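The instructor's notes for this session suggest beginning with a concrete chain rather than abstract definitions. Hand out the sequence below and ask the class to guess, before any prediction is shown, which regions might be ordered.
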Amino acid sequence: MILAFKVITSVIIFVMAPSAHTFIFLLVMQWYWLLLPLPLLAVPILFWIRLRRVRRKRRQLIRSEWAVEEADWNPTEVRGTM
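After discussion, reveal the predicted structure:
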């Protein structure tokens, strides 16, 4: 809520006085609020990276345990040829 208020207020200030000086002033005064969304973006990205790594490891373990070639095994099929 406060982030939206700050963004709207900054846009209004910049619309009223559009100059490079105003932009720099707003950026310097509120740079730390720009860092706030980073964890909200980083957590899903890190989860996705970990999910890909776990799936790759699972695929490798299944192939090594069952001696299945990559062309013979499709993990998305309901009835694979394991």
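Then share the key points. The two ends are 53 Å apart (CA to CA). The chain has two domains: 1-35, 37-82.
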